[in-house]
Structure formats: C-alpha cells, structure tokens
C-alpha cells in the first residue's frame, strides 16, 4: 500500500531527480536505508570500504562513490536496468570482474580514474550505451583491447598510465572515438591517424617519450588538416639533438635523419638520393592537401623500403609505380594525369 502511494506520487512528479546526498560526510558504511525513489546516490569523498549489497532501486541512475576506500567493484545486479553513470574514481580497486561489468546494460559513463586497474573486461553488456570511459591514473601498461565494449566509445581517458604502445588495430576497435587522452604515458610513437577510418580524434600525447623519426612524419605531413592536433604538446626524447626542440620548430627532414635502426638508416640513404624530389613534392602536399593524398603518402612511408607511390587524381587511387633509387628515375610517369610522389 505504502509503495503504491509512493508510485502515484512518483508519476505525478514525473519522478523528478531524487538525490540522496551524503558526500563529504565522513561516513564509513554504505547506507542501505535510502528511499527507493532515489535516482542519484551521491556518496563521494567519504571513507566507505565495502558495498556489501545494493537493494533494488527502480530509479537509480547515478551512483557516485568517487574518493572512498573501496577495494572491490560493487555488485550492481539489482539496479542494472536503470544505472547509467558510475563514478568510482579515487578508490583502491584492482580489477572489475567481467560478470559484474557485463550486466551493466544501460551504462553510459564509467569513471574509474585513480584506481589500480591493469585491464578492463571487454564484455558486450554496456557496448550499446557506453560512451565515456575514464581510466586515468591506473596501472595499464597495455592499451586495453575493446573490440566488444568499445563500439560506442567517444571519450576515453588513459592519461597517466604506463602504456608503451598503441597500434592502429587498437584504434580500429573504437570506431566512434572523438577524444583520447594518452598524456603522461610511455609512448615512443603513435599510429598513423591518416589510416584510421573513424571520425577525427582529438588525441593528447603530451608528456610521452616520443622518438621523433619517420613514424611521426605523418604528423608534419598532415599539419593543418586537424588529424593530430595539440602538436605544441609533443616532446621528443630521441634523437638527442631534438630533445629540447619545440615540435613546431622541427622540419620534416629532421625526422628522417639520425635513425637508430639499420633498416631506417638504409631508407635515409634512399631519401638522400632523391632529396630534391621529395622536397618538391612536399610543397605540393602543402598546397593541395586532401586526406587521400596524405593516406597515399603514409602508405609509402610505412613500407620498409619506401618505394614511390603515385596518387591518381582522377580515380583517387594510390598506386605503386616503381622507382629506381640508384638512377633517381621513376617509371610509368607518362601514364598518369597527375601524380604526387613521396620518399
Ligand atoms: C539485491 O537485493 C536483495 C533484496 O534486497 C538483497 O537481498 C541482495 O543482497 C541484493 N543483491 C546485491 C548483489 O546487492
Ligand atoms: C552478484 O550478485 C548476484 C545476486 O545477488 C549473485 O548471483 C552474483 O553471484 C554476484 N556476482 C558476483 C561476481 O559476486
Ligand atoms: C536507460 O537509461 C536511459 C537514460 O539514459 C533511461 O531513459 C532508460 O529508461 C533506461 N533504461 C531502463 C531500462 O531503465
Ligand atoms: C599519476 O598517477 C599516480 C598514481 O598512479 C598519482 O600519484 C599521480 O598524482 C598522478 N599524476 C597526475 C599528474 O595525475
Ligand atoms: C583540430 O583543430 C581544428 C581547428 O581548430 C579542428 O577543425 C579539428 O576538428 C580538430 N581536430 C581534432 C581531431 O580535434
């Protein structure tokens, strides 16, 4: 009877947000006597160590226990339908059991910054709704594999972890990505975003130990196209002579010099052979930038023995036309309407 009265009240008031707010209250236990109409449970900045159970709350949408002393991810079984936002940053959580993640079928935001996570379960449960994932200041050393969970992800924060490598394949798992914070990690390079098929992504790579060699050349080549912004934040730790140079003061040719590995050393010889040609053509790119031209350049630069590719303006295709680096001559030029070469 009591429940029916409340239900009527709830319908009349259109279940306007009912906030239960005991944040900053020094409480040490998770309260279990909260009104069942609660939609926002605000218990951040307390000293709660355990969430033993959570009663069914048919309207609970936001669960905020940011900055507490939890060591375990709570079992949200009783509120999986309605729960959309979880804030559990600044706790002591080491892992999220996959069953407990998979049941969160209406989750849009998961904030887990400042915990001790090393992996995140790649489960399909929240995949249709999850668009923001905050994993900053955890213990990730590998970029998380998110082939299931990442389908709708737009905003991912992995700042201040220990990630050493991001591959294009990782990004291909995140087709909706718009913002990716990878500042304060251990990345020495970053995959060529010209080859990423999704939206343009706002990537932060500040405070990473970047090796400024040809793998990063696309950033220069694609400048002014908004493919990788915030380049003023980039810092090179290698090669030594670029260590204290601002990215904006580094020329494309700097990125081809002083390589450490032999294969690239060889490439730099080829480049020296046709240096004038390369310079001319880089000027063309600057004047006539289009994403497909840049992709064409990237295809070439990602080859171990960078041969000459041509961009056919009429068919918008990229073709290997063959080059003899010793004689500085390129075959097949007469068949092309317009061409742009790299290397
Ligand atoms: C779900 O709610 C029931 C009934 O209040 C409770 O006994 C149970 O412990 C809850 N389960 C969890 C996982 O919180
Ligand atoms: C979560 O709670 C449900 C219901 O109380 C229980 O069946 C399930 O085993 C719990 N899951 C975990 C991982 O503890
Ligand atoms: C899922 O969340 C949305 C709000 O983001 C809400 O409108 C909807 O009712 C929720 N789904 C269920 C089954 O409660
Ligand atoms: C980075 O994370 C560590 C803990 O992992 C934390 O102590 C430090 O304050 C964080 N730094 C920043 C700038 O967030
Ligand atoms: C980069 O900046 C340009 C100009 O401000 C903007 O149009 C573009 O969308 C940005 N790109 C990304 C990936 O954020």
From TrEMBL:
InterPro entries: Leu-rich_rpt (IPR001611), Leu-rich_rpt_typical-subtyp (IPR003591), LRR_dom_sf (IPR032675), Pan_app (IPR003609), SLRP (IPR050333)
Classification via Gene3D superfamilies: Ribonuclease Inhibitor (3.80.10.10)
Keyword annotations from UniProtKB, A to Z: Leucine-rich repeat, Repeat, Signal
The keyword Repeat is assigned to this record: yes
Keyword Repeat annotated: yes
Protein name (database record): Apple domain-containing protein
Signal peptide positions (record): 1-17
Domain Apple: 269-343
Pfam (any one): LRR_1
